[in-house]
UniProtKB/TrEMBL annotation:
Keywords: Cytoplasm, Golgi apparatus, Membrane, Phosphoprotein, Repeat, Secreted, Signal. This is NUCB2 protein. InterPro entries: NUCB1_N, Nucleobindin. GO terms for cellular component: endoplasmic reticulum-Golgi intermediate compartment; extracellular exosome; Golgi apparatus; membrane. The gene is Nucb2. PANTHER family: NUCLEOBINDIN (PTHR19237), NUCLEOBINDIN-2 (PTHR19237:SF22). One of its GO terms (molecular function) is calcium ion binding. The keyword Repeat applies. It comes from Anseranas semipalmata. The keyword Signal applies. It is found in: Cytoplasm; Golgi apparatus; Membrane; Secreted. Residues 7-128 form the NUCB1-like N-terminal domain.
Amino acid sequence: KGEGHVEGEKIENPDTGLYYDEYLRQVIDVLETDKHFREKLQTADIEEIKSGKLSRELDLVSHHVRTRLDELKRQEVARLRMLIKAKMDSVQETGIDHQALLKQFEHLNHQNPDTFEPKDLDMLIKAVSARYK
């Protein structure tokens, strides 16, 4: 039956196929709760987004939004650490370069695992853009 879109109903987006898809969706959802950032996102063209210009707007979002983004990043870093540990446990090799493993995850700044900064948003945008070139 052709039932229309109900006001307030969330539309399910297709899976992007990215291993950090859930993190990406959560970051976007949180950023869209900030009126100023949502307006900038809606008016930005694709080149502004890819160039990192939009990432600088992160400094203007509310404290609540930044706190939630920090929390999301810490959760994502913990998830990635679990993946690395599982990989190490399965391989059982010595001399693994942990930094090299972390560098595989280019969608966030692994050198700062506690706070979500403009660099993190820029890296997330660039990782998604590189996937769809």
